[in-house]
Amino acid sequence: EKRSADSSPSPKSFVSQLQNSVSIALRANLWPLLLVKIITGIASSIHSTALPLILSQQLNFDPSQLGIGMSIASFSVAAFGAVGVSPLVSTFGVQWLARVGLVFRGVSSVIAAIVITAAAAAAALSTATVAST
């Protein structure tokens, strides 16, 4: 059956869509998810910025090796997302995977914070050692 032009729902205005998004975001049960999402977004941004620097400056990757390494990392994440998630969802269920995902994101954020703090402390110590000699 074809719908007539009159029976199709009218599009919502930008303001009403924005109000709906804000009302959803203000739900108390979403705050842990949003907090973890923000923290892991920051950690991901730091990782994507720091990894090429570490690979090139500390591990002496040349530009071609750096490009291959970064491409393989991006491709593997995309491939798993395209192929690996469906069997996990059908085996364990959406709710369980969401909980496990939140735990892994939280743990990875803590690990990233520890690594960043340790790297900053090591850099500060090496700078202080060089300055004192």
UniProtKB/TrEMBL annotation:
Residue intervals passing through the bilayer: 30-54, 66-89, 109-131
Keywords: Membrane, Transmembrane, Transmembrane helix
InterPro entries: MFS_trans_sf
The keyword RNA-binding belongs to this UniProt entry's keyword annotation: no
SUPFAM superfamilies, sorted: MFS general substrate transporter
Protein name in UniProt: Major facilitator superfamily (MFS) profile domain-containing protein
Organism encoding this protein: Ditylum brightwellii
Lineage: Eukaryota, Sar, Stramenopiles, Ochrophyta, Bacillariophyta
